[in-house]
Batch of 2 targets.
Target 1
Amino acid sequence: MGLNYSERIPNNVNLSGDRRLMRALEIWQPHFLEWWKEMGPEGFQAADVYLRTATSVDAKGWATFGYLKMPDYRWGIFLAEANPDERIAFGEHKGEPLWREIPGEYRGVLRRLIVTQGDTEPASVEQQRHLGATCPSLYDLRNLFQVNVEEGRHLWAMVYLLHAYFGRDGREEAEALLGRRSGSGDNPRILGAFNERTPDWLSYFMFAHFTDRDGKYQLASLAESGFDPLARTCRFMLTEEAHHLFVGESGIGRVIERTCQLMNAHDTDSVGLFGGIDLAIIQRYLNFHYSISLDLFGSELSTNAANYFSAGLKGRYREDDWRDDHQLIGATRTVLKPEGSVIVESTQPALVALNETLRDSYVADCERALARWNKIIGAANIDFALKLPHRGFHRAIGQFSGVNVTPKGEIVSAQGWESRRDQWLPTSADKQLVADLMRPVLKPGEFASWIAPPVRGINHQPLDFEYVADLPQV
Ligand code: BYC
Ligand code: FE
Ligand code: FE
């Protein structure tokens, strides 16, 4: 299905058929643009960026590529096609028709889910706004900006739902989404990871890998929702998300590849002197970003999660693939929990443990990507393997928060943990070393010393293509 770009707000939801809604969104639109100019990519608003724009909502062939200045990006409202036969797939309403309107009893919780999802999108743009100044190549710069404009569109996706279905309080929430600021003391973003700094490109690739991947799993479970407009908007967001995950995984893969080349060339583990990032530092960054992203799944035991599922608002990852009643009546599962100085398995109702079930899907996905990175190290004949730390390590949400768990999964004293913090999490020296490597590389086809070039360019373009043109004079 083609998308309508003749309107001020591109859409495939027949916006022009709803004057009230259109007017409300036209009031929000300039506020969004003000936010984008204030908090979007710093220094590059006037550059020409080789961006893709959605032109249909089919999974295949939905994109066109061309040069755009980011403020001219056509942020729009695109929902995946409706499936007329589809019914609610899980929970108490299983088998009933999908909701086209919000069931009154679920209004509050649904708004909260949509606001929480929506809040992460502008947060990530804010976290990444300084990165243009230190990009390792034009290719990477373009990918960063592609991700940024799409996160902006994801905000539009949630704001559409708020405006279209929640009346006045929806409009207020939409304004508030532009008011919070990542890392702010008095008006921060909602979830923990979205208030952390993303000071360098190693952090950025880790974020795109581990934190955007939480996005993939959360969106996939909202894409199961009985509230059809939410499900369909999340389905289309997932097609954009795939590129964000590619940027993260391949970015880290290229850093690893470069590190291995330098280790072999100079016969050393310490490649900092040669312009690379040690595997040990990469491991510590990984430990940090993985653990704060695990927190994004919420507590292991959550009545919120049980209620979302029973109400038919938020499903499991690929709900159809689960061979059970899709209601979890009487079902149980084991959940790890700290008990004194050990971690034990406890049996819990599956319904209240749904955050952990989604986390399981995420962890398995992270393991697969990790194996691909370790293959790069193996191919360089280097005897080292990156590892995912234990799920209890460095957690701030859930049963492990405040418990001193090592990456191997042992519970130790606070003192014992603190004394080894520098082995496990990025140290100030690590951050300084990485910061010192962050110098902009803006010549087409050139790459910074600490990262290997990608295998291929974007949209069949060569690696020395001018992915970003008309750069600011520095
Ligand atoms: N930080 O009952 P619990 C993305 C709060 S990423 C701070 O376990 P629940 C993206 C929680 O709100 C995907 N607070 O929580 C990625 C609750 O607060 P109250 C974003 C947290 O509801 C990269 C309390 O702790 N989408 O799209 O079961 C770039 C008790 O927790 C955190 C969604 O998250 C935290 N990490 O689960 C761009 C989907 N975790 O009630 C974009 C929508 C929990 O005490 N959200 N709390 O005030 C949800 O489904 C759920 O809200 C959560 C939490 C899974 C996040
Ligand atoms: Fe997003
Ligand atoms: Fe994303």
Note: The mean pLDDT is 96.
Target 2
Amino acid sequence: RSDFSLTGRGAAKVVVLGGSIAGLTCAYELGKAGYDCTVLEASDRVGGRTITLRAGDRLDELGGETQTAAFEEGTYFNAGAGRIAQWMVTLDYCRELGVPIETFVNNNASAYVYTRGMAAPVRARTARADLYGYVAELLAKASDTRALDRRLTAEDRERLAEFLRRFGDLGPDLTYRGSTRRGFETYPGVGEGVPLGAPPSLRAVLAAGTGRAVTIDFGYDQAMPMFQPVGGMDAIAGALADAVGRDRIRTGTRVTGIKNLPDGVEVTHQGGTLRADYCIATLPPHLLARLPHNLGAQVTAALRTPVPVAAGKIGLEYRRRWWETDDRIYGGVTETDLDITHIWYPSHGYHSRTGLVVGYYNTAENAELYGRLSHRDRRTRALTQGKKIHGEKYRTELRSSVSIAWQRRPHIEGGWVTWPSHEGGFALLQRPAGRVYFAGDWLTHLVAWQAGAMESARRAVTELHRRVLQAT
Ligand code: PHE
């Protein structure tokens, strides 16, 4: 960073396409170094997929309806980006920009697990206790009968047994018979409590298929603690935009063409033409590929390589926080194998009167299915599914709702992308095409994370700056 300034050179002009996290980070970093940046943003708000909907906010979809959030004052819905891992550069920007953060509960033993084979949902702690318990028992017994002696010495065996007893809460005979880890009918207090009792059979536990649900948070990008900005994820986009300077950001300005010139770039947009020394294009690749440009057929082919993936969410605002009062769930995620996939409970506003639950967060086919429906039908479907877990109150206590199908969002048209391969196009677009650079989460191995957008932006501006230093 120390050398990241123009040290007396005339300010190079950079036009940034897209007021997303990638675009704003580019303009923010270049601005710090003294560059003269202009950000062109097609929609009427900054942030890209970092959006937070509040009372009165409108949301339109391609070929669809416009919804208006009818939330109460104070309710918000992070309709896109929702959680941040500790190691992500996103937190460094929060610190630098003074965006306060709080814990995002990504994993809650009290939340439910529900798969279609189950008569009723079980708490995550119960599903986990039973799976760990039986797996530990099987392994401990296999080892005990010397079935693993090709891998284990006598000492290994002892150490493994010691671990497995803890891991599964096994009896001295290495059998899993259930454990207080499963939870209680009545929790201990003055009395010793009433534990849930014996687990279902090993066969039943395996048949329930809860393995995916109880391992999601093992991932390096999903492990607790995770974080969110206080008051809504859009605080990050807002703080970046303020730091860039709102006067440098032109919203409602759709780009219509990019032209590389020998000594600069020419960007055409709805309102006219803009000349600059350099351009950083941060639009989704499938939209960039459709823009008229003179960057060559290889660039177009590369931009067409990543495949857009659908993603959707619905925000369900409730009159009362029944998940806290009735279910004793304070934040976290219920995992299901239904088409809603997840239910998120809010990690803020505990014990306030109302609150908003994310009734589905799904991707690919499930998101396409919901995306084809009207908002009304999405809501009906989401309520029908959620009722299987939470019962009638899931419908009757609803106050208002808003849903988003990212593949139908104007100027974005996707939840994120997947690269069939990182050979070829991925590498090509890391380099500038003439004076045009590319940036976005789609150009990283952190697709669908704000951190990916930021890392990519930092790479692009570092390279651009190196070139500017060499050129003069
Ligand atoms: N970042 C998104 C999320 O947290 C999408 C994502 C999920 C990306 C899992 C990678 C892995 O849900």
Note: The chain has a mean pLDDT of 96.
